[in-house]
Design goal:
By secondary structure, this protein is an alpha+beta fold. It folds into two domains: 14-68, Roll (2,3-Dihydroxybiphenyl 1,2-Dioxygenase, domain 1), CATH 3.10.180; 80-166, 2,3-Dihydroxybiphenyl 1,2-Dioxygenase, domain 1. Helix content is 17%, strand content 28%. The strands form two sheets. Strands 5-8-7-6-9 form a five-stranded mixed beta sheet, with helices on one face. It has a four-stranded mixed beta sheet with strand order 1-4-3-2, covered by helices on one side. A hairpin with a 7-residue loop joins strand 3 (47-51) and strand 4 (59-62).
């Protein structure tokens, strides 16, 4: 077992993820066209960097090793999913509506106690989680004072009831 130096600084965050895709245009159609990320920069037909709010990039899409490729088989190691955190329930509902309106099937919808999550796949079969966290004071805590996350069915109809009119 490796000796640890102590916990990581609580201010550390995950900055971005790079995804190997088979087709940049198809990937941009999903991440920008459906989910609403904005293109920040392109490197020809090989890579694109997208974000929310003008950040340099939250997601990098590239074909450096995957142009025209196929998804890894189900029993292979690799990325399980990337998770996109929405600031509130209404914004999550709006994102889910966009996905459904685009005809994209959902893999699942779960209430984890700490969050509400929707699962789907991008055009390259990468797992994508769209979620929102509940306020920390609403997280489930067990009798020993420990976090007690769970997985229960999410009421998708109730979530979609939060969609902004108009």
């Amino acid at each position: 077992m490796t000796k640890t130096a102590g916990p990581i600084d609580p201010a550390v965050t995950i900055g971005h993820v790079h995804l190997k895709v088979a087709d940049i245009e198809r990937a941009l159609g999903f991440y920008c066209g459906v989910l609403g990320f904005e293109l920040q920069q392109r490197f020809g037909r090989q890579a694109a960097f997208i974000s929310a709010g003008g950040y340099h990039h939250h997601i990098g899409l590239n074909t450096w090793e995957s142009l025209g490729g196929s998804p890894p088989p189900p029993q292979a190691t690799g990325l399980y999913h990337l998770a996109i955190l929405y600031p509130n329930r209404r914004q999550l509902a709006n994102a889910v509506k966009r996905v459904l309106d685009a005809g994209i099937e959902l893999d699942g919808a779960s209430d984890h106690g700490v969050s509400e999550a929707i699962y789907l796949r991008d055009p390259d079969e990468n797992g994508v989680e769209l979620y929102r966290d509940r306020p920390r004071d609403q997280w489930p805590i067990d009798a020993q004072g420990e976090l007690a996350m769970y997985t229960r069915a999410l009421d998708l109809s109730a979530l979609l009831g939060e969609v902004e009119a108009g």
